[in-house]
Amino acid sequence: MKPRTHIQQEVAHLSKRLSRLTATQKAYAFRHCFKHYAIKRADGTNICTECGHSWKSDHDLADTLCGCTCPHCGMQLEALRTRKSVFSENEYFSIVTTSKQYQVIRFFFVKSRYKAGQAAKYSIYEVVQRWIAPDGTTTTIARLRGMSVLYYDLWAEYSDMEIRRNGGLRAYDIDPICTYPRQRFIPELKRNGFKGDYHNLLPYDLFKAILSDSHAETLLKAGQYPMLRHYIRSSFDMGQYWASIKICIRNGYTISDGSIWRDTINLLRHFGKDTNSPKYICPADLKAEHDRLVRKRNMQIEREKLEERIRKAEQHEKEYRKLKGVFFGIAFTDGTLQVRVLESVAEFAKEGTELHHCVFSNSYFLKKNSLILSATIDGRRIETIEVSLKTLEVVQSRGVNNSNTEYHDRIVSLVNNNVNLIRERMNAA
Question: What are 191-205's pLDDT values in tens digits?
């Protein structure tokens, strides 16, 4: 793509003036981009993947646990037991530098090939440059990429480094395995709070954010690093939360988890709490407060669901009374357990909701040949019992999530001992 804007033209010109990789930089990339192994064979031979040297070790266990040093080239090696003889890897290496007024992040594609008994072969070439102006405006220079959905490393090695459209697809947002330690930064980054720590963010994302977004700049300067990470990675509307964040900053409260804190603020608003009050927005234990509000919200949702179920169930009340009204009032106890007939469809809804089974959702209240009873202890639902009106036998008795409770056998026995109450009502009808 031909440079069109003034910035693109300037960046294209400056790109050609960037220095080539030095031998020191290449050596650093080759050493730190890849793991280096001592290949251990069954006969006790070690083979260095860096120089190809072979030797026998008298400390096999120590080598395996702690690694070893090649006696020929001095490379620190990890032990690897394998029969493989050829290894190849690809990684990315980056250099953070400046050019004129621009912050520049350069990415290099590094290849390695190891063959047992031979010195390692490396290659490296530049694939992407991210140019960031002092106001956060960005320009991308890169080689051509393959269009495969599955493989992102299909660079056209011999294509030109040219201005490329990014289009917000993050196609050039590379996370390198290592970065050259000697780095240069434009003064605007330091002015906006950057002190050399990337806070587990990609340099490009951090630089662009703090140069173009005052919210990100303030979060960095205030030491609100978890919130900064969440903001940059999630790209939500910070304006909705900024007033609360400023209160946190004024009160010296560090948000420990940006995502959880934002969820907490949303929950507080749901419950009508004051999100400008440190009492609510600066909890000592953020996760515990978040979890409490989530439980409260879930309980509210369950209540709303129950109310909706009861509302819908009202249309079946007359039919249920017609089918089972003759059994209403049947109740019996053994002193601890109380068992009674459910006398409304609304009770079916409550029973099913509390015990998390399908007595309501599967419309047991409309089953002509079934009578549903509820077993409780001090008002707490224990199990729901289905009795066949044909055989007067217990078909099933289910507790929470359709489980059998410790009272199951006792409940079934109690119902069997009192089926005569059901028989009497049937005969009277």
Answer: 999 999 999 999 999
Confidence of residue 323 (pLDDT cuts 50, 70, 90): very high
pLDDT over 90 at 211, yes or no = yes
Single out the residue of 196, 239, 210, 232 nearest to residue 136, CA to CA.
210
Q: What are 337's two structure tokens?
A: 């357990």
Tell me how crowded residue 214 is: count the other CB atoms within 10 A of its CB.
Answer: 11
Whether the CB-CB separation of 316 and 324 falls below 8 Å is answered with no
Is 245 in contact with 258 (CB distance < 8 Å)? no
Q: Are strands 76-81 and 37-40 parallel, antiparallel or unpaired?
A: parallel
Rounded to whole angstroms, the Cα distance separating 230 from 199 reads: 11
Q: What is the largest CA-CA distance in the chain?
A: 103
Report the C-alpha gap between 426 and 429 in whole angstroms.
Answer: 5
Burial classification of residue 256, based on how many CB atoms lie within 10 Å of its CB (0-12 exposed, 13-18 middle, 19 or more buried): middle
Q: Which residue shows structure tokens 């020929």?
A: 72
- In this prediction the pTM is 0.76
* DSSP secondary structure letter of residue 155: B
Burial class (CB in 10 A: 0-12, 13-18, 19+), 360: buried
DSSP secondary structure letters along 24-73:
HHHHHHHHHSS--EEEEPTTSEEEETTT--EEE-S-HHHHHHH-EE-TTT
Q: 68-69 and 138-142 as β-strands: parallel, antiparallel, unpaired?
A: unpaired
Q: Could you tell me if 162 and 141 are in contact, meaning their C-beta atoms sit under 8 angstroms apart?
A: yes
Q: Which amino acid does the sequence have at 410? A: R
- Is the domain spanning 315-428 CATH 3.30.420? The answer is no
Q: What is the percentage of the chain residues whose pLDDT exceeds 70?
A: 98
Integer Cα distance of 86 and 115 in angstroms: 4
Give the contacts of 205 (CB within 8 A, at least 6 positions apart): 173, 232, 233
Instruction: List the chain domain ranges.
Output: 6-179, 315-428
Q: Is the pLDDT of residue 84 over 70?
A: yes
Distant-in-sequence, close-in-space partners of 240: CB < 8 Å, separation ≥ 6: none
